[in-house]
Amino acid sequence: MRIALAQVPCALGDKKENLSRMTGIVENGDADLYVFPELFLTGYMVRDEVFRLAEGMDGASVKAVERLCDEHGVHILFGMPAWDDQVPGVLRNSAVLVSPDELVQRYDKVNPASFGPFEESLYFGAGPSGVLMDVDGRKIGAIICYDMFFPELSKSYALAGAEAIICISASPVTSREYFEKLIPARAIENTIYMVYVNQVGTQLNQVFFGGGEACGPRGGRLVKNKYFEPDFSSFDVNIEEIKAARRGRPTMRDSSTC
Question: Is there a contact between 199 and 192 (Cβ–Cβ < 8 Å)?
Fold first, then answer.
């Protein structure tokens, strides 16, 4: 499974343009799974406009991504503000995985960021739990930005059989040091592939640093995207690397007996 880290600036509040940028990446790539940042569909700093821009899983934007996946035989994971399927009028900050044949899977951010410059709890309710996703029989766990700081969520995915944990993010430059320490830590403690795809560019008063990366199950960096610029990279997930890492340091064996 080849995973692409699509570090693409998004046009604030312009869903049509952002879908066009997504299409351009997919049409020129060769990956199985394309990953775009947190709230990529609308941009992160839309504030109250989020209520106008949000959609359900049956909305026009998800349908457009479905057509793109069908046309190219690929999977796309991206962030969007989504209406809750069960609770009318409640918004979630969601990671949506679209696959060919109109298969849609969704994770709602469990830990909205509401401190310092972050105002997510003004708009979004917290999701209830992690969601293990399927990509042609391969298992991945999705987390969103601040979720990275809660290791139990990533651990639960690893124990459920995920081969990779994918973090989509809208992290400003002030948080760069924290994420670059946590990404390899989560990979090492779970002997799993760890993927981080961040917003890039300036939205209102926030400067997003980009800097997406992927680490292997021993914590070694596999790819690194540029800072403050659009960039694209990809790598292959190899289950044998996970098995070898777990033979060498059996954290998963020992975690399962806690």
Answer: no
What digits encode the pLDDT tens for the residues 7-63?
999 999 999 999 999 999 999 989 999 999 999 999 999 999 999 999 999 999 999
pLDDT digits (tens, 9 = 90+) for 69-114: 999 999 999 999 999 989 999 999 999 999 998 899 999 999 999 9
Q: Which residues contact 16 (CB under 8 A, 6 or more apart)?
A: none
Task: Give me the domain span that covers residue 240.
Answer: 2-255
- Nearest CA to 165 out of 184, 187, 149, 182 is that of 187
Q: Which are the contacts of 89, defined by CB distance < 8 A and separation ≥ 6?
A: 83
Q: What CATH code is carried by the domain that includes residue 210?
A: 3.60.110.10
DSSP 210: B
φ/ψ of residue 175, rounded to 5: -105, 0
Number of domains in the chain: 1
Q: Give this prediction's pTM.
A: 0.97
Q: Which two tokens stand for residue 105?
A: 């899977």
φ/ψ (deg, to 5) at 254: -80, -30
- State which amino acid sits at residue 235: F
**Average pLDDT over the chain, rounded to an integer:** 96
Q: Which of 142, 123, 125 is nearest to 133 (CA)?
A: 142
Q: At what angle do helices 15-27 and 60-72 cross, to 10 degrees?
A: 10
Amino acid of residue 119: E
